C-alpha cells in the first residue's frame, strides 16, 4: 500500500510540476517576446513610456505599454508573476525527494561509479544546489554581469564541470537531474531574491511618490533574461531520463553540455530574430550537432564484433541471467522494493516476453549498461555479454 501511495504522490507532484512549469516558462517566453517587440522609436510616445505594442489574440485586440521606470500613480490592481516560479521549484524539490532521495540506493547510487552511502549521495546532491546558487549569485554581483558573453562562458564552464564532477559520484541519471535542479534553483532564486524584491522597491517608491531607482528594474530584467536562456537546457534535462543514450554514455556530461549549448543558441536565435537575422545559422547547425551526437552515441561496432565472436548462447543461459538480475523489476508481479509495476511495461516473464523486448534488452543491458538501474542487482560484464550475444544471435526461443 505504501508503494502504491508513493506512486500516486509521484504522479500528482509530476503533473503539478509540469503545469506550473509550463505557466512559468510561458510567462518568461512571452515577456521576453514582448520586450523585444515593443515599438520604442515612435514620435507620439509620451516621455515616460519606453515603448508600446498592438497585438491580436483569440477574440480581440490588445494594446500594451511599458513605462521607462514606473507610472506616477499605480492602478488599483497590479498583477504579479511569481507563484509560477515558486511552485515550480517547490514541486521540483518535492519530486527530487520522493523519487530520488527516498530511494537513494536505487536512483542515486551506482556502485560501478562510486560505492558511497545513500546519505552521502543525498548530501552531494543537496550540496550541489547550494554551491550552484552561490556561485551564480556571486558571479551576477561581479563585473561579469556587464559582460554577457564572458558571463555566459563562465556559467557554461561551471555547469559543465559540475556535470562532470557529479558523474564521478552519483548515478548518471541522478547526476543529470541534479544539474537540472541546480539550474532550476538559480532560476527560482532569481525570482525570489532579486526580481520580486526589485519590483517591490519600484512599487513602494511609486506609492510613496518618490522617484524609483531605475537599477532595480534593470537588474531584475537582466536576471529574468538569464532565466529565459536557462529554460531549454532545463526542459531537456526534465525529459532526459527517457533517453539513456545521453546520461548513460561515458561522456554523458559532454553530451549534456553540447545539447545545452544548442538549446541556449536556439533560444538566442528566437530572442533576436525580430531585429536581425545574424543568427540564421543556429537552426541548421543545431540540427547537424544533434545528428553528430546521434552518430557519436551509436553502439560500438567493436562491441558487436565481440558478440559475433562469442560462443553460442542458449535461451536457458539468457533466462538464468534475466531471472537473477532483471526479473525483480521486469515482471508482471515485481518483487523489487521500489518498483511495484514493471518499468515502461517491459516484462521478461516468458521466453516470448524476452524475445519481444530483446532489442531494448541489448541496448540497455549491453550497449549502454544503464540497466539494471544503477546496477542494483550487481550484474557482471560476463552476464551482460551473455544477454547481448543471445540477442545478437537472433533471440531464439525454440
Question: Can you put this structure into words, describing what you see?
Answer:
This protein has 398 residues and is mainly alpha-helical. The chain has two domains: 2-37 and 69-238; 301-392, Cytochrome Bc1 Complex, Chain D, domain 2 (Orthogonal Bundle), CATH 1.10.760. The protein has helices at residues 2-37, 83-101, 104-107, 118-140, 148-166, 172-207, 214-239, 244-247, 252-272, 282-296, 301-308, 315-325, 351-356, 358-367, 381-392, and strands at residues 49-57, 60-67. Strands 1-2 form a two-stranded antiparallel ribbon. β1 (49-57) and β2 form a beta hairpin. It is elongated, with a radius of gyration of 25 Å. The two termini are 40 Å apart. The model has no long low-confidence stretch (mean pLDDT 93).
Q: In short, what is this structure?
A:
By secondary structure, the chain is mostly helical. The chain has 15 helices and two strands. The chain folds into two domains: 2-37 and 69-238; 301-392, Orthogonal Bundle (Cytochrome Bc1 Complex, Chain D, domain 2).
Amino acid at each position: 500500500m505504501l508503494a502504491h501511495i508513493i506512486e500516486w504522490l509521484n504522479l500528482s507532484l509530476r503533473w503539478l510540476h509540469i503545469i506550473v512549469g509550463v505557466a512559468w516558462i510561458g510567462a518568461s517566453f512571452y515577456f521576453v517576446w514582448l520586450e523585444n517587440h515593443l515599438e520604442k522609436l515612435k514620435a507620439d510616445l509620451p516621455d515616460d513610456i519606453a515603448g508600446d505594442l498592438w497585438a491580436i489574440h483569440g477574440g480581440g485586440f490588445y494594446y500594451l505599454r511599458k513605462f521607462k521606470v514606473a507610472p506616477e500613480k499605480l492602478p488599483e490592481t497590479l498583477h504579479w508573476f511569481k507563484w509560477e516560479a515558486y511552485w515550480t521549484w517547490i514541486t521540483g524539490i518535492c519530486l527530487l525527494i520522493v523519487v530520488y532521495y527516498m530511494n537513494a540506493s536505487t536512483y542515486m547510487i551506482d556502485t560501478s561509479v562510486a560505492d558511497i552511502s545513500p546519505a552521502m549521495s543525498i548530501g552531494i546532491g543537496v550540496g550541489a544546489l547550494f554551491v550552484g546558487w552561490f556561485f551564480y549569485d556571486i558571479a551576477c554581483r561581479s563585473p561579469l554581469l556587464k559582460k554577457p558573453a564572458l558571463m555566459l562562458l563562465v556559467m557554461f564552464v561551471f555547469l559543465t564541470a559540475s556535470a562532470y564532477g557529479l558523474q564521478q559520484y552519483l548515478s548518471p541519471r541522478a547526476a543529470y537531474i541534479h544539474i537540472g535542479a541546480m539550474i532550476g534553483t538559480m532560476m527560482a532564486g532569481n525570482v525570489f531574491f532579486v526580481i520580486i524584491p526589485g519590483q517591490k522597491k519600484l512599487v513602494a517608491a511609486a506609492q510613496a511618490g518618490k522617484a524609483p531607482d531605475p537599477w532595480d528594474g534593470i537588474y531584475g530584467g537582466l536576471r529574468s533574461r538569464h532565466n529565459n536562456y536557462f529554460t531549454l537546457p532545463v526542459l531537456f534535462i526534465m525529459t532526459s531520463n527517457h533517453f539513456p543514450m545521453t546520461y548513460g554514455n561515458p561522456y554523458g556530461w559532454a553530451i549534456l553540455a553540447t545539447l545545452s549549448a544548442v538549446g541556449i543558441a536556439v533560444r538566442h536565435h528566437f530572442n533576436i530574430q525580430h531585429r536581425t537575422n545574424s543568427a540564421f545559422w543556429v537552426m541548421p547547425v543545431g540540427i547537424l550537432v544533434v545528428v553528430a551526437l546521434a552518430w557519436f552515441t551509436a553502439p560500438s561496432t567493436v562491441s558487436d564484433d565481440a558478440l559475433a565472436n562469442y560462443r553460442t548462447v542458449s535461451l536457458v543461459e539468457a533466462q538464468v541471467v534475466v531471472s537473477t538480475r532483471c526479473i525483480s523489476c521486469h515482471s508482471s508481479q515485481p518483487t523489487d522494493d521500489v518498483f511495484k509495476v514493471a518499468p515502461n511495461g517491459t516484462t521478461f516473464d516468458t521466453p516470448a516476453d524476452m524475445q519481444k523486448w530483446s532489442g531494448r534488452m541489448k541496448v540497455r543491458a549491453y550497449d549502454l549498461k544503464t540497466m539494471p538501474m544503477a546496477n542494483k542487482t550487481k550484474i557482471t560484464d560476463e552476464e551482460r555479454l551473455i544477454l547481448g550475444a543471445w540477442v545478437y544471435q537472433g533471440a531464439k526461443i525454440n
